[in-house]
What we know:
single chain; 69 residues; 4 helices
Amino acid sequence: MTDDELxxxxxAFTYMPQAIEVTQYEYGERYEKVLEQIETVRxxxxxxxxxxxxxxxxxxxxxxxxxxx
Length: 69
């Protein structure tokens, strides 16, 4: 994966719903598929040494909460 492709994946990931937000009520019968897709993207980021939980702050630092560690 090129750096540009990885950057595009990180940007797209910031617009994906968080897994905790995906419910059958909100997504109907496809909620399990949405959860699988989120997990696929998370795994790909991890495979490239990127912490998915830090991506949003990296892409949009002005909207990230301050960290204490």
